[in-house]
UniProtKB/TrEMBL annotation, chain A:
<dbReference type="InterPro" id="IPR050490">
    <property type="entry name" value="Bact_solute-bd_prot1"/>
</dbReference>
<feature type="signal peptide">
    <location>
        <begin position="1"/>
        <end position="22"/>
    </location>
</feature>
<protein>
    <recommendedName>
        <fullName>ABC transporter substrate-binding protein</fullName>
    </recommendedName>
</protein>
<dbReference type="InterPro" id="IPR006059">
    <property type="entry name" value="SBP"/>
</dbReference>
<keyword id="KW-0732">Signal</keyword>
<dbReference type="Pfam" id="PF01547">
    <property type="entry name" value="SBP_bac_1"/>
</dbReference>
From TrEMBL, chain B:
<dbReference type="InterPro" id="IPR000515">
    <property type="entry name" value="MetI-like"/>
</dbReference>
<feature type="domain" description="ABC transmembrane type-1">
    <location>
        <begin position="85"/>
        <end position="299"/>
    </location>
</feature>
<feature type="transmembrane region" description="Helical">
    <location>
        <begin position="172"/>
        <end position="195"/>
    </location>
</feature>
<feature type="transmembrane region" description="Helical">
    <location>
        <begin position="26"/>
        <end position="52"/>
    </location>
</feature>
<dbReference type="InterPro" id="IPR051393">
    <property type="entry name" value="ABC_transporter_permease"/>
</dbReference>
<protein>
    <submittedName>
        <fullName>Melibiose/raffinose/stachyose import permease protein MelD</fullName>
    </submittedName>
</protein>
<keyword id="KW-0812">Transmembrane</keyword>
<comment type="similarity">
    <text>Belongs to the binding-protein-dependent transport system permease family.</text>
</comment>
<keyword id="KW-1133">Transmembrane helix</keyword>
């Protein structure tokens, strides 16, 4: 009798423990949103329509830029309205972290998105986290870049050039009538703006990705436009960050930031920069074409222009080469045929002429598809398009967007941008800081080879 | 079951070996669920972390390679880690001292105040209820160079030349984090000190007063020594929370400007997640674990000794 009682108590205890653990398990499953494989209740109840499988998948993308976030959210909403049997769960969050940090954290907690905007393609492909783009989707795109001979991404757009977005009023008030033809003329403009009493430049240095705009402008002018294989040479230690061209690039960066950038740049977020410009707190912003929508939204009457900053010899070099980035299918989602089909359906929907043109118009992007996409472009966007089509303009990439032998250690970009923040904040010696960059680069290469 | 019944049951158990076994099996049954959960969620991951600290795992691939002590050698050589360790120690010492001093002062004040006693207690305790993230956002807004209230106040009173990017300056960013954390944490320790103060017999202060001791002397020779027990608890708690500080740094400075406010906990997150070096990050976590263990043991030993002496 006593044994029986003990058994009953033990069973009750185990049942309680199982219930607790089962509850945890259920919660986890719902978070992962696997395809359910059940018939839509309405369809089943009606009995006269074919059964449609309910499928759901998760999506994640870089949402630091409000215009991009809104454009993708709108497309997702339109897709779900057009396909009621498919649920897309948007995991994207606006945070102060870099996109890679966010993605890595999602992976660590088992929430790696089924469909993900991939920027560090080679890293995640090597880790087996993403799969090749389904071959039937390749027909949609114009020469998508390959990594290890395979296409991993549906490119969301072609890389757009970055340049100076300036207030026409501030330029007029400072007596600036012509745009610069050389970098020295650009510096003279900064001096004129400063003298006129306005802060020449606003920088959203609180967001680490924003630092890349300026740092890469100087690196492209002095390094990548002349030697696109510089990264692979750096990995092989045949070039150095202490070489005169890199030191010159970072000296120019430091000088510009010290003299002409708003003093609060390290605590200014990227999404605050548009308001600085339209409110007249600063005269210029160095960013990409996606900012045009934000600026117009902040003040539709704000009159602004756009141009690429020339280098010292008067040549124009911009970000504009294709790089392996865009929508990628996670390896986990690819195991589920229904989910894969739903994701393919979404990708086709995203790049459909009507939807894609709306997306591109919201972010002022350049299409990556074979099909010609048109949308009404602004005067500023036309300048960007002219830069892309001008054969005299050198197209290049940011330090971290190269791949293959030119891939830098994935952790180096953010570290380097932070080092460059410190260089300005502590008024450091450029050569000393470049020595630190060399050491860290070598350490990271070594660490990745272990 | 009341304490007496438990005692009686135990006494019977000692007298009767069969009852003793039964009692032990019941005890095991009660312990088992907690033990299983603790083992599953704490012991197993901790043991796994020890192994990971000897690998070069990037945190995303299936490939986990054993690299011996390479991570620990790198920790010894890395200037970034040394800087983070220095920042951690500076922040810990500053926070332990400032939080406890502020908490004792607040506790004495709210203990002595005649009117609105509960209001003052609530007001000083309120910041404790905020999460580190919310507190970080609030202070980041207050200290913003262009839009922050603090700089606008300086400007309004004619001290515009003192305006600084408080969170973007290598000189002030650390100070800003420390002071805002003291603002958040002092109220919590104030409650513990207040409980300690209320446990001090009033006769002691009355007797000292009759003997001619002033307020400061009474505090120094009666109140402060008798707060030793509360102080042990508060110092250990504030030290552990200071060593683990993360949220405020993530929100207010992201470890910057540059690497100026990176601490060990923050660098663990940055290298582990942002820089795809989970193995190295885990090795750093092991170092932090040993550091907290060591400092806690020393602190408890020292403060306990002081309690006995008092």
């Amino acid at each position: 009798m006593r044994q029986k009682q003990t058994l009953i108590r033990l069973s009750a205890l185990l049942l309680a423990a199982t219930t607790v653990l089962a509850a945890c398990g259920n919660n986890n499953n719902s978070a992962n949103n696997t395809s359910e494989g059940t018939a839509a209740p309405d369809a089943a109840a009606a009995g006269n329509t074919p059964e449609v499988k309910k499928v759901s998948f998760t999506i994640g993308y870089a949402s630091g830029d409000p215009a991009t976030k809104q454009a993708i959210a709108d497309t997702v909403k339109a897709f779900m309205e057009a396909n009621p049997n498919i649920t897309v769960k948007d995991l994207s969050e606006t945070s102060s972290s870099a996109y890679l940090d966010w993605l890595k954290t999602k992976d660590a907690v088992g929430e790696f998105p089924d469909l993900v905007e991939m920027r560090d393609t080679q890293v995640f492909a090597d880790a087996g986290k993403i799969v090749e783009l389904p071959s039937d989707l390749l027909e949609l795109f114009k020469d998508p870049p390959q990594v290890d001979g395979k296409v991993w991404n549906a490119p969301m757009q072609v890389n757009v050039p970055q340049g100076i977005i300036y207030s026409k009023k501030a330029y007029a008030d400072a007596g600036i009538t012509e745009l610069p033809k050389t970098y020295d003329e650009f510096l003279q403009i900064q001096e004129k703006l400063k003298t006129s009493g306005i802060t020449p430049l606003v920088v959203g240095g609180k967001d680490i990705f924003h630092m890349g705009f300026w740092i890469n402008k100087f690196l492209i002018d002095d390094v990548y436009s002349k030697d696109p294989d510089w990264n692979s040479k750096r990995t092989a230690k045949t070039v150095s960050f202490t070489d005169p061209n890199v030191v010159q690039a970072m000296t120019d960066y430091k000088e510009l930031f010290t003299k002409y950038v708003d003093k609060g740049w390290l605590s200014t977020a990227d999404n605050q920069t548009a308001s600085f410009l339209v409110s007249g707190k600063a005269a210029q912003l160095y960013s990409g074409t996606w900012m045009f929508s934000q600026i117009k939204e902040a003040d539709p009457s704000f009159d602004f222009g756009f141009y690429a900053i020339p280098d010292r010899e008067g040549k124009v070099n911009v970000v504009g080469l294709a790089s392996p980035a865009g929508w990628s299918l996670s390896a986990e989602a690819a195991k589920d045929a229904d989910k894969t089909a739903a994701i393919e359906q979404f990708i086709r929907f995203f790049f459909q002429k009507d939807n894609y043109s709306k997306y591109l118009a919201s972010i002022n992007g350049i299409p990556s598809t074979k099909e010609e996409i048109t949308y009404e472009t602004s005067e500023q966007m036309q300048v960007a398009l002219d830069l892309i089509t001008d054969p005299n303009v050198t197209k290049s990439l940011a330090i971290n967007n190269w791949w293959g032998d030119n891939l830098i250690p994935p952790q180096f970009r953010n570290w380097y941008y932070k080092l460059m923040q410190e260089l300005v904040a502590k008024d450091g010696d450029v050569t000393d800081y470049m020595k630190q960059a060399d050491n860290e680069y070598d350490n990271q290469v070594k660490a990745n080879q272990m | 079951m009341s304490a007496n019944l438990v005692k009686a049951e135990q006494t019977l158990a000692v007298a009767n070996p069969k009852r003793k076994r039964k009692w032990q099996s019941y005890a095991l049954l009660f312990i088992l669920p907690s033990f299983l959960i603790y083992t599953l969620f704490v012991i197993v991951p901790t043991a796994g972390s020890i192994y990971l600290s000897f690998t070069s795992w990037d945190g995303i691939s299936e490939d986990i390679r054993y690299i011996g002590f390479a991570n620990f050698v790198e920790i010894l050589q890395s200037t970034r880690v040394h800087n983070a360790l220095k920042n951690t120690l500076v922040m810990t010492i500053s926070l332990v001292v400032l939080e406890n001093v502020a908490a004792i002062l607040l506790a004495v004040l709210v203990d002595k105040v005649r009117w609105f006693k509960n209001l003052f207690r609530s007001v000083f305790y309120f910041p404790t209820l905020l999460s580190g993230v919310v507190m970080g956002f609030v202070w980041a807004m207050i200290l913003n160079y262009n839009f922050g209230v603090f700089n606008q106040m300086l400007d309004a009173v004619g001290l515009g030349s003192w305006m600084v990017d408080w969170l973007g300056s290598p000189k002030y960013a650390m100070l800003a984090i420390i002071l805002s954390t003291v603002w958040k944490g002092a109220g919590y320790y104030m409650i513990i000190y207040l409980a300690g103060l209320q446990g001090i017999p009033a006769e002691l202060n009355e007797a000292a007063s009759i003997d001619g001791a002033g307020g400061w002397k009474q505090f120094r020779h009666i109140t402060f020594p008798l707060l030793a027990g509360s102080m042990t608890v508060c110092m250990v708690l504030s030290m552990i929370s200071a060593l683990k500080i993360f949220d405020q740094i993530a929100v207010m400075t992201d470890g910057g400007p540059g690497f100026e406010t990176e601490t060990l906990t923050y660098i663990i997150y940055k290298v582990g997640f942002g820089e795809l070096r989970q193995g190295f990050g885990t090795a750093l976590a092991m170092v932090l674990f040993l550091l907290i263990l060591l400092v806690t043991l020393i602190q408890v030993k020292f403060l306990r000794k002081r309690e006995v002496q008092m």
